[in-house]
């Protein structure tokens, strides 16, 4: 594919989706490798990085991003169509690349522009990966209590602190770190978002093995790590706005991408797996449809320059329901999942089942989402 955008594909998402579908149908080797069940996390990261490289070289993953940042134009609707098509062809998840739809929309919108223009192609092509450093041992639901500090020293900030539950840090190159630039009392008003190089001396990443056997999560410590002031995302002391922008994607539009894979999982299981009751499949399909409807609205709003705002919390709650009901349906058809010999397919099923139990925590716990709905949408006292 040419490095120039095709105006027809930019203007017509249906034509773009058909073109991606045609490419997938030729079964490129990177796609064929990615549709196999791969329970080993490090291997999955490698295989998905290769697939991202192939999608970038073919030009597909560049649609949906502005030309000023190395994209080929179009909107989030293109990205939604690309991942939906990949799922339909058997890709099981975004693996380590969820931040393409959690962090990258915010980086593209709020900068720093020069840095993002360099970083976006590296991320899209699978050469570099990102992590999000918000949570700390004493700051999760109460994120404004975070204590990681950034202190100005010449033309850089020196960052010291400890982050936890940082997804993909072990495999990441860059981390978007929320740090305190104001006083402790300044709470959410004294926070700034920085892009930190995870390879820099003074950064230590300690992987945390989860119950499902993956090492997606990590604890990351920063010991006096210098970060150029040019790597501030948004404004100095404007980190809360950056965090809310990211969370609106993590809770809202990201659900579109996730539900593509959930749908594919469920349909694949019904077709090939042990019998599952019609009732369980029907319930799970309804739950997925609810996620697709609300997150699809989020995509359309985003494409027109608006956002779901606090309504993204409703999408996240629906996503939690759907994740659980699908895995409950799968488990009902595989009562011996906990005991079954671990071939690659069973091992992945077990990973997915256990993951479905913690979906209510990432991006803010279920209780905190309910609180947002009560206060911001229902305006309850
Ligand atoms: C799979 C996974 C991936 C994650 N990835 C990342 C990541 O990449 N980057 C990152 O920064 N973080 C990440 N997190 C962390 C996640 O954002 C936090 O775990 C979450 O915000 C909850 O914070 P906490 O763990 O400190 O729990 P706490 O805030 O201590 O909450 C514990 C319990 O108390 C409840 N609670 C707390 N305060 C209230 C209140 N005021 N009212 C009612 N109930 C309350 C909570 O709902 C929860 O049930 C991830 C978590 C998981 C599980």
What is the gist of this entry?
This protein has 381 residues and is α+β, with helices and mostly antiparallel strands. The chain has helices at residues 7-11, 13-25, 29-34, 41-57, 76-88, 99-102, 104-110, 113-124, 239-272, 278-303, 312-333, 344-356, 366-377; strands at 130-133, 149-153, 156-163, 174-180, 191-197, 203-208, 217-228, 232-233.
Secondary structure: elements and pairs:
Layout lengths: L6 H5 L1 H13 L3 H6 L6 H17 L18 H13 L10 H4 L1 H7 L2 H12 L5 E4 L15 E5 L2 E8 L10 E7 L10 E7 L5 E6 L8 E12 L3 E2 L5 H34 L5 H26 L8 H22 L10 H13 L9 H12 L4
Parallel strand pairs: 1-4
Antiparallel strand pairs: 2-3, 3-7, 4-5, 5-8, 6-7
The structure holds flavin-adenine dinucleotide.
Features:
alpha+beta; globular; Butyryl-Coa Dehydrogenase, subunit A, domain 1; 4-stranded mixed beta sheet; 13 helices; 3 domains; binds flavin-adenine dinucleotide; 381 residues; Butyryl-CoA Dehydrogenase, subunit A, domain 3; Butyryl-CoA Dehydrogenase, subunit A, domain 2; 4-stranded antiparallel beta sheet; 13% strand; single chain
């Amino acid at each position: 594919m040419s490095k120039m955008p095709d105006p027809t594909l930019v203007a017509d998402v249906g034509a773009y989706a058909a073109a991606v579908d045609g490419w997938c149908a030729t079964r490129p080797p990177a796609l064929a490798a990615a549709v196999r069940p791969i329970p080993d996390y490090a291997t999955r990261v490698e295989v998905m990085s290769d697939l991202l490289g192939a999608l970038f070289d073919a030009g597909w993953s560049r649609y949906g991003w502005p030309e000023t940042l190395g994209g080929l134009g179009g909107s989030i609707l293109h990205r939604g169509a690309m991942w939906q098509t990949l799922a339909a062809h058997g890709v099981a998840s975004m693996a380590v690349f969820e931040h393409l739809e959690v962090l990258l929309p915010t980086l593209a919108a709020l900068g720093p522009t020069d840095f993002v223009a360099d970083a976006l192609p590296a991320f899209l092509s699978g050469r570099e990966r990102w992590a999000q450093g918000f949570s700390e041992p004493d700051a999760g639901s109460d994120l404004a209590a975070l204590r990681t500090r950034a202190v100005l020293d010449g033309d850089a900030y020196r960052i010291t602190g400890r982050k936890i539950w940082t997804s993909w840090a072990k495999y990441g190159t860059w981390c978007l770190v929320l740090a305190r630039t104001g006083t402790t009392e300044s709470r959410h008003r004294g926070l700034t978002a920085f892009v930190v190089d995870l390879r820099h001396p003074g950064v230590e990443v300690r992987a945390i093995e989860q119950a499902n056997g993956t090492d997606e999560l990590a604890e990351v410590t920063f010991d006096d790590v210098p970060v150029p002031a040019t790597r501030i995302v948004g404004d100095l002391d404007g980190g809360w706005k950056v965090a809310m922008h990211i969370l609106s994607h993590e809770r809202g539009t990201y659900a579109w991408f996730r539900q593509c894979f959930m749908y594919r999982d469920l349909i694949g299981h019904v077709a090939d797996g042990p019998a599952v009751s019609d009732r369980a499949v029907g319930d799970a399909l309804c739950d997925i449809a609810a996620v697709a409807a609300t997150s699809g609205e989020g995509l359309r709003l985003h494409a027109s320059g608006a956002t779901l705002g606090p309504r993204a919390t409703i999408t996240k709650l629906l996503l939690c329901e759907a994740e659980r009901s699908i895995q409950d349906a799968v488990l009902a058809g595989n009562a011996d999942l906990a005991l079954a010999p671990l071939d690659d397919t069973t091992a992945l099923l077990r990973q997915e089942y256990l993951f479905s139990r913690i979906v209510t925590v990432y991006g803010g716990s279920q209780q905190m989402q309910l609180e947002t709905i009560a206060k911001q949408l229902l305006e309850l006292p």
